[in-house]
Amino acid sequence: MRTELLQNPVFAMAAAQFDQVADFLDLNDELRERCKWPKRLITVTVPVRHDDGTTRVYFGHRVQHHLTRGPVKGGLRYHPKVELGEVAALAMWMNWKCALMELPFGGGKGGINCDPRNLSQTELEKITRRFTMEMAPFIGEDIDVMAPDMGTNEQTMAWMVDTYSTSAGRLVPGIVTGKPLNLQGSAGRSRATGHGVAFLASRALNKLGVKIEGASAIVQGFGNVGSFAALTLASYGVKVIGISDVTGAVWNADGLDVDKLKAHVSAKGSVSGFVGAEAIDPGEMLVQECDVLVPAATDMAITRENAAKLKCKVLAEGANGPTTPEADLIISERGDIFLIPDILCNAGGVTVSYFEWVQNLQRYQWTEREVLTRLETMLEGTFARVLNFAKQNNLPQRTAAQALAIKTVADVKSSRGLFP
């Protein structure tokens, strides 16, 4: 039954990665079973009356992978193709990400199968508030703390705070992170994931002896993660030569003006038609020569079909699960690409979410400089640990990162024992 519930190619990929690492760690059968499968799979119906008077029922999912090390932490996405198995995979990766960064959280993920582009603000608010109420018995600042993800934003989080707090009879800002600043959100939270991706990419270039000023980068995806990764890379002096989104891709070998492109996207809704760039096929863009390639869109972007064609020096995974296991093997065999695995590369978001949660519990606000400095310090330390572990054990960097994370979770489960 458990495999039927989680039957999904993304979960199959996450499970295959876990099995490989569990073999390396030589985990016994009990710890394998306890670490692999999620603690809770929650599905609720979300009935909403639309603006035209019709009523539609959406399905909302929340997977809490483990609460062994603390409350679960992870995003909430709105997308028409949300499935329970995919959500479970993302929750598993979030669990490893929190453990790798030594945050006192387990992994969680949620989603509602709706298309936010086709919904009014009123309809989005109704969906969010109803989902929050349906989830109320299973969430809390010491149980499950959500955050924005694909198709959601700080306004979504504000509605969740209000709904939960109204029911509780008091303001509970720590119920979510990624909130507006005026609701005790954290400075630097919006840019954290993309900033972290760019920061680690620059560290990888340093390791390779590539001068950052004048290096080139391609970014797949221009949402929150991709846009801030591109902006931060550009601020370092990197030429961002290609950027794509769901509508297409733009290219300029001399470097795109990322600030102007962001303004264009705000006005037009897509990168297409940007003056000062030429159109390029999004798939072809991925295999152009560059120093840094940032897949920051959806999972499974780097596959067996295009992995051998990549011409980047650094592959910085801004998205979750952008590289399939088959592609991983090809990249590992090539040996000429410095991979920064997703659970490290995009960990900036959950790390600053942790900072926001701590600030909420303390009722104290940090400055953006404090937040980003703390973030960079933590990423730098974890980056060094992963590289050292990979070198000492002759492992690919993804396997090294996941081994450190899974061992952390397994050790805590072993210490706590099995009840009853």
Written description of the protein model:
Keywords: Oxidoreductase. One of its GO terms (molecular function) is oxidoreductase activity. Belongs to the Glu/Leu/Phe/Val dehydrogenases family. This is Glutamate dehydrogenase. Pfam families: ELFV_dehydrog, ELFV_dehydrog_N. With 420 residues, the protein is α/β, with parallel strands linked by helices. The chain has two domains: 176 residues, Rossmann fold (3-Layer(aba) Sandwich), CATH 3.40.50.10860; 154 residues, NAD(P)-binding Rossmann-like Domain (Rossmann fold, 3-Layer(aba) Sandwich), CATH 3.40.50.720. The chain is 47% helix and 16% strand. The protein is built from 15 helices and twelve strands. The strands form two sheets. Strands 9-8-7-6-10-11-12 form a seven-stranded mixed sheet. A five-stranded mixed sheet has the order 1-2-4-3-5. α3 crosses α15, α7 packs across α8 and α14 crosses α15. The longest helix is centred in the last third of the chain and has 26 residues. It is globular.
